[in-house]
Amino acid sequence: MIYPIVAYGDPVLRKKCDAIAADYPQLPQLIEDMFKTMYHCEGCGLAAPQVGLDIRLFVVDADPFKEDDPGSEGFKKAFINAEIISRSKEKWRRSEGCLSIPGIYGEIERPNSIVIRYHDLNFVQHTEEYTGIKARIIQHEYDHIEGVLTVDHFTPLKKSMLKGKLNELMKGRADAHYRMKFSTTR
């Protein structure tokens, strides 16, 4: 199943998400559907709030960046109940966009490396370090389960310049090549 992407303005995108148990209903199918949805939308990551679920789950696939970062080839994972436990002091800036905020991109500074604790699909806990583009994608999706969006990282001037576009998006006007779900509470 391919889900519609929840658009900017929906309250689920601002919630700090809840942890889930190993017996969460149809979890393997949900993860498979989230990957299908992500690929359909041409994304490299997708968090549960973006499909309307306030749970601590996200999926990533760094393959689109394999030419820029050869170490990212084949990096495809689901992260359940993730918690970033450390971030490097070294940071770097790069333009980011978000499937929930189509057509809006901005430079975001993020730590170059992170250590994250999470469960895999079999509910085995892992603690791993990631650097570069892998760390950036994970941090972007992790922000979603914390209720943080890319626009929250933009400068006040950039946010002010985007106010009209964001208001249009909240009114249900988006230019996306995929199906979106707009909030009924504004």
According to DSSP, the number of beta strands is 9
Summed over residues and divided by their number, the pLDDT gives a mean of 96
Biggest sheet overview: 5 strands, antiparallel
Structural class: alpha+beta
What is the quaternary state of this protein? Answer: single chain
Content of β-strand: 25-35%
- Which H/E pattern describes the elements? EHEEEEEEEHHE
Helical content class? 10-25%
When the domains are counted, the total is 1
What does this structure look like?
This protein is α+β, with helices and mostly antiparallel strands and 186 residues long. It has a single domain (5-170), classed as Peptide Deformylase (Alpha-Beta Complex), CATH 3.90.45. Helices cover 23% and strands 31% of the residues. The protein is built from 3 helices and 9 strands. Strands 2-3-4-7-8 form a 5-stranded antiparallel beta sheet, sandwiched between helices. A two-stranded parallel sheet has the order 1-9. It has a two-stranded antiparallel sheet with strand order 5-6. The longest helix has 15 residues, at 156-170. It is globular and about 45 Å long. The model has no long low-confidence stretch (mean pLDDT 96).
